[in-house]
């Protein structure tokens, strides 16, 4: 099982809309996942995260710009 969070923005601030649980197989079928295509993308994301300082982050995809990801660092509690 994996948990996915859906985030919206309200006045330029992220807001959690919903969290859902699903199986990996169900998610793969839903998004037409192909394992061979994911490794370069995963490597890019991991390299980006390894270059950041320790903390909690959100990876966001812009609905208006195709293939654009943004990385947000969450404030420390």
Kindly list the characteristics that best describe this protein.
single chain, 77 residues, alpha+beta, 2 domains, two-stranded antiparallel sheet, two-stranded antiparallel ribbon
SSE arrangement:
Elements: E1 2-10, E2 13-22, H1 24-30, H2 35-50, E3 57-61, E4 69-73
Antiparallel strand pairs: 1-2, 3-4
Mean pLDDT: 82
Main beta sheet strand tally, sense and closure = 2 strands, antiparallel
> Helix fraction?
25-40%
Number of strands: 4
Count of domains: 2
Question: What Rg do the Cα atoms give?
Answer: 14 Å
What shape does the CA trace take?
Answer: globular
Task: Summarize the structure in short.
The chain is of the alpha+beta class and 77 residues long. The chain is 30% helix and 38% strand.
Task: Write a structural description.
The chain is α+β, with helices and mostly antiparallel strands and 77 residues long. It folds into two domains: 1-33, no CATH class; 35-77, no CATH class. The chain has helices at residues 24-30, 35-50, and strands at residues 2-10, 13-22, 57-61, 69-73. The longest helix is centred in the middle third of the chain and has 16 residues, at 35-50. It starts with a strand and ends with a strand.
């Amino acid at each position: 099982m994996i948990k996915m969070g859906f985030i919206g923005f309200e006045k330029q601030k992220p807001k959690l809309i919903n969290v859902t649980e699903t199986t990996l197989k169900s998610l793969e079928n839903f998004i037409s996942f192909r394992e061979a295509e994911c490794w370069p993308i995963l490597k890019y994301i991991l390299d980006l995260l390894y270059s950041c300082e320790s903390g909690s982050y959100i990876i966001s995809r812009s609905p208006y710009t195709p293939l654009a990801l943004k990385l947000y660092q969450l404030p420390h509690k």
